[in-house]
Amino acid sequence: MKTMVAGLRTVLDARGRGLAVMALALALGLPACGGSNNMTGPTPVPQPAGASQAKVAVTVSNATYDFSDDPSFNYQLTFGLQITESAGLAANVNFVRLEVYGAGDALLERREIGATNFGSNRLPANGNVTYNVKMHFNSDPLVGRYVLIGVSTTDDKSNTQLSITPKLAF
Fold first, then answer.
1. Model pTM?
2. Within the chain, what is the greatest distance between any pair of CA atoms?
């Protein structure tokens, strides 16, 4: 009986190896027999998302005030206005604001003009626009008073901001 068991074990071992070889061949051959043709390649490298908000800076040059040429106001302020975007997100200029302050930083007067008064109000991404601005006001430009110039923008992701210059003394 020992011989019979040994002979049976030899047959089972041979069959087991044969089945294992057939299972391996079948597993390797199945993908080539139809099914999905999806091939996965390398994982794509994510690209930077870009700026989430425009970064706008305002510069005023050659600011001068004088008596107004508009009879509704006493004075006028003329100046060059440069608006610069540096985050890579374009924006629209909404308006330019003039605020006149007195002693103790008290707001005396605020005037705004729409950017459409300057022609195009589009501020390109990583670009700038320059306007020649004339704004009228009534508060006396006395010593100790100053103005702030603000520019409102809305970028292409709908963020609105107001960028303000440093104090400009009369």
1. 0.70
2. 127
